[in-house]
Amino acid sequence: MKFYSGICTFFLLITVCSHAQVSYGILGGGQQTDAKVKIPDGPRIPATVGYGFHAGAMLKVPFDKNVFFSPQILYSLKGFTVHYNNMLQDSVTAAKLLIHYIEIPAMLQFDTRSDGNGFFFLFGPSVSVAITGKERRTFIDNSEKQRPMRFANTAYGRFEMNLVAKAGYWFKNNVTVTGGYSYGLGSIVNDDYFARIVPRMITLSVGYFFR
User: Fold this and answer.
1) CA–CA separation, 47 vs 34, rounded Å?
2) Inter-residue contact 194 to 42 (CB < 8 Å)
3) What are φ and ψ of residue 190, in 5° steps?
């Protein structure tokens, strides 16, 4: 329900701001994701990065002088590998996660120049909703088994909250290049007795504003 409310809110913003001097555009790019993993009351578990991509739409709504409200709605593919090395005593040595999200960042943007060109900075929260995902586990005997990720109160959670910070450059032809960092605010695992997994992500995007 929260997922559909978020999408409705995004498009409501488009409707409300349609009479203002709003810029709207598209963006896409690549991303690198890793995670901080820890067993409750136990040691940290190593993780290695995975790679994915994102694509979607964005708005730039005037707020105050060089400050703008900049919401986005994105499809985002995230993935990384957790190296359990049988620390959970379940014969699993590694688990590779690949998760498909709908992501809605709601950020404030600060332009360094009043004409919009040049450098800009963005900061704000982001909520992601997992649509589906796959988990490929490797066992002690080197066998592998792939299964769909299970989302439940005692398994993986569908919602992920992040704080996002970005810096970019707006060219005169309305093309933007942006680099960013996303820090997870909580574990993507609901089970309190399982490992805590908090993702972190680096992004690089190219965008184009139509207006």
Assistant:
1) 7
2) no
3) -85, -25
The residues, any chain, with a CB within 8 Å of residue 159's CB and separated by 6 or more, are: 2, 127, 128, 129, 130
In the chain (211 residues long), the average pLDDT of successive 10-residue segments reads 51 52 92 93 90 96 89 96 84 93 96 87 96 94 92 92 96 94 95 90 96 66
Residue appearing with tokens 């009043």: 114
Q: Is 151 exposed, middle or buried (0-12, 13-18, 19+ CB in 10 A)?
A: middle
Q: Are 151 and 103 in contact (CB under 8 A)?
A: no
pLDDT the model gives residue 211:
66
Measured distance CA(156)–CA(72) in Å, rounded:
25
What's the token pair of residue 6? 């978020």
Indicate the SS3 state at residue 50. Answer: strand
Global pTM reads 0.86
Q: What is the rounded CA–CA span in Å between residue 37 and residue 17?
A: 41
Q: Per-residue DSSP letters for 79-137?
A: EEEE--TTTTSSSEEEEEEEEEEEEEEEEEEEESSTTS-EEEEEEEEEEEEEEEEEEEE
